[in-house]
Amino acid sequence: MAKLYFHYSTMNAGKSTALLQASHNYRERGMETYLLTARFDDRSGAGEIGSRIGISAKADGFDGNSDLFDMIEKRMKSSTLSCVFIDESQFLSYDQVWQLARAVDDLNIPVMCYGLRVDFLGKLFPGSAALLAMADEMREVRTICYCGKKATMVVRQDGDGNVITEGAQVQIGGNETYVSLCRRHWREATGERFPL
């Protein structure tokens, strides 16, 4: 029976690596997968899901206007799909998460979403909030704070390493911009200004 999965964590936990490994496992057994990622995140190149450890794969892009049910249904008509993988799922809209749920329910295809749970302000991303509400199964991908405790939060830094405590929710970046921390060290780094 197909399910909607949400694999979540903070930055630099290996979500994209896990996604690419899971897709590889399907393909190694002769099963076709369909990879999707946020169109505006082109750090690995346009139409690529890339990992910090250097592996990558081609993917179709989605944006706020994409009908994911329609995209999946069309892909299923042209090939026998075994699983759909969504990278950067925090950027999905509420409606798009429902589209994925419909694909699971009506097309009987498993959908594995990988994304951030919270932003640098400690607030849920819209796609993550919808996935937390609708996913059949949720799995945390863990990483650690510099103190060794589990990291559940992330801070955004400027070019000089100073913590930024305001700004747009979405800013694409990697290790040069974001640092994963445990909640205690996130509170210290942000001066306990949050939540707003």
Automatic annotation (TrEMBL):
<feature type="binding site">
    <location>
        <position position="145"/>
    </location>
    <ligand>
        <name>Zn(2+)</name>
    </ligand>
</feature>
<keyword id="KW-0808">Transferase</keyword>
<dbReference type="GO" id="GO:0008270">
    <property type="term" value="F:zinc ion binding"/>
</dbReference>
<comment type="subunit">
    <text>Homotetramer.</text>
</comment>
<dbReference type="GO" id="GO:0046104">
    <property type="term" value="P:thymidine metabolic process"/>
</dbReference>
<keyword id="KW-0862">Zinc</keyword>
<comment type="similarity">
    <text>Belongs to the thymidine kinase family.</text>
</comment>
<dbReference type="Pfam" id="PF00265">
    <property type="entry name" value="TK"/>
</dbReference>
<keyword id="KW-0547">Nucleotide-binding</keyword>
<keyword id="KW-0237">DNA synthesis</keyword>
<feature type="binding site">
    <location>
        <position position="182"/>
    </location>
    <ligand>
        <name>Zn(2+)</name>
    </ligand>
</feature>
<dbReference type="InterPro" id="IPR001267">
    <property type="entry name" value="Thymidine_kinase"/>
</dbReference>
<dbReference type="InterPro" id="IPR027417">
    <property type="entry name" value="P-loop_NTPase"/>
</dbReference>
<feature type="binding site">
    <location>
        <begin position="87"/>
        <end position="90"/>
    </location>
    <ligand>
        <name>ATP</name>
    </ligand>
</feature>
<feature type="binding site">
    <location>
        <begin position="9"/>
        <end position="16"/>
    </location>
    <ligand>
        <name>ATP</name>
    </ligand>
</feature>
<feature type="binding site">
    <location>
        <position position="147"/>
    </location>
    <ligand>
        <name>Zn(2+)</name>
    </ligand>
</feature>
<protein>
    <recommendedName>
        <fullName>Thymidine kinase</fullName>
        <ecNumber>2.7.1.21</ecNumber>
    </recommendedName>
</protein>
<dbReference type="GO" id="GO:0005524">
    <property type="term" value="F:ATP binding"/>
</dbReference>
<feature type="binding site">
    <location>
        <position position="178"/>
    </location>
    <ligand>
        <name>substrate</name>
    </ligand>
</feature>
<keyword id="KW-0479">Metal-binding</keyword>
<keyword id="KW-0418">Kinase</keyword>
<keyword id="KW-0067">ATP-binding</keyword>
<dbReference type="GO" id="GO:0071897">
    <property type="term" value="P:DNA biosynthetic process"/>
</dbReference>
<feature type="active site" description="Proton acceptor">
    <location>
        <position position="88"/>
    </location>
</feature>
<dbReference type="GO" id="GO:0004797">
    <property type="term" value="F:thymidine kinase activity"/>
</dbReference>
<dbReference type="InterPro" id="IPR020633">
    <property type="entry name" value="Thymidine_kinase_CS"/>
</dbReference>
<dbReference type="GO" id="GO:0005829">
    <property type="term" value="C:cytosol"/>
</dbReference>
<feature type="binding site">
    <location>
        <begin position="170"/>
        <end position="173"/>
    </location>
    <ligand>
        <name>substrate</name>
    </ligand>
</feature>
<feature type="binding site">
    <location>
        <position position="185"/>
    </location>
    <ligand>
        <name>Zn(2+)</name>
    </ligand>
</feature>
<keyword id="KW-0963">Cytoplasm</keyword>
